[in-house]
Design a protein that fits this description.
The structure is a single chain. The chain is α/β, with parallel strands linked by helices. The chain has 2 domains: 42 residues; 226 residues, Aminopeptidase (3-Layer(aba) Sandwich), CATH 3.40.630.40. It is 50% helix and 14% strand. Strands 2-1-3-6-4-5 form a 6-stranded mixed beta sheet, with helices on both faces. α2 packs across α10 and α7 crosses α10. The radius of gyration is 24 Å and the shape is globular. The site of zinc ion (ZN) has 6 residues, from loops.
Length: 282
């Protein structure tokens, strides 16, 4: 019995030493791999092949005959345009190497698929869509969305409301391959698109969420995923920002103010600058 215990202890010690050594070796390998990977990823500032974020498409939700959701006096189409124009101005003034393309600069109606097509035609590196939310009067806070499968019926509800805009478009059934904005199955089917861009979409979405929460000090409902038609066919990282609830009187007052629209834009701008710097290697 005693011999067995001694043997077992010896075996344990041997195993322990071996695994310790293995661990140390593994750590060295992991470290050198990490250094190699990082240095391989670090772009040379002088390299002509260095990644550049050159073009951003800014999309103010709704417009024209489609006024979006509404509060007592504010309309989603107008608030979204106010934030988008302020954001575009900040990018143009501070980052002159970035080309800013707008899906609309005035109060006009633009189909959802045309918004994505504008981004694709311009070979955009990022697509930013701004909207305002609607819900019970107590509902408040910002939401930043990327394409993906909704996890709750509330998330599906936001996408359904934004997607129902296509009912105002001509021939929407042929334009959107028979997509029915009232059917949950339709939303599940196409929420799988955009998966090639999900990492960078989330990377940017998280920066927007943090900036709006910390710099602009807006209450946040987090980063979420659902199937939005406007993000469906874009072939680049894409996010949709719900700037707040127009159905909440306090948020409606805040969002319906030009200075506050500029603050919101400044938060998104800072996130954009961070994201651009990170992808370009600082
Ligand atoms: Zn909207």
């Amino acid at each position: 019995m005693r011999i067995i215990v001694i043997l077992a202890s010896a075996a344990f010690l041997l195993l322990g030493a071996a695994s310790g050594e293995w661990k140390a070796k593994a750590q060295t390998t992991a470290d050198s791999t990490r250094i190699a990977a990082d240095s391989a990823l670090l772009p040379d500032a002088n390299s002509p092949y260095r990644y550049r974020l050159r073009t951003v498409v800014l999309d103010a939700g709704h417009g024209g005959k489609d006024r979006g959701c509404a509060g007592a006096s504010a309309r989603e189409a107008d608030v979204a345009l106010g934030i988008i124009l302020a954001l575009g101005k900040q990018i143009e003034e501070n980052l002159p190497d970035v080309k800013v393309v707008y899906t609309r600069k005035t109060n006009v109606f633009v189909e959802l698929d045309e918004r994505a097509a504008i981004a694709n035609r311009n070979h955009a590196d990022l697509f930013i869509s701004v909207h305002c939310n609607a819900g019970p009067s107590a509902g408040h806070g910002t939401e930043v969305w990327t394409m993906g499968l909704h996890k709750t019926t509330a998330n599906l509800g936001v996408a359904q409301r934004e997607n129902s805009v296509i009912l105002q478009e001509k021939n929407y059934q042929t334009r959107y391959n028979g997509f029915d904005p009232n059917s949950p199955q339709s939303h599940i089917m196409f929420s799988l698109f955009q998966s090639a861009y999900i990492t960078n979409s989330l990377r940017f979405a998280q920066r927007v969420e943090r900036q709006l929460r910390t710099s602009v000090k807006r209450p946040s409902r987090g980063v979420k995923q659902a199937g939005f038609i406007v993000l469906w066919k874009s072939t680049m990282p894409s996010v949709l920002i719900e700037a707040g609830f127009l159905t909440n009187p306090t948020e409606e007052r805040y969002l319906n103010d030009k200075a506050n629209q500029s603050y919101m834009a400044a938060g998104i701008y800072r996130a954009f600058r961070e994201y651009k710097r990170e992808l370009e290697g600082g």
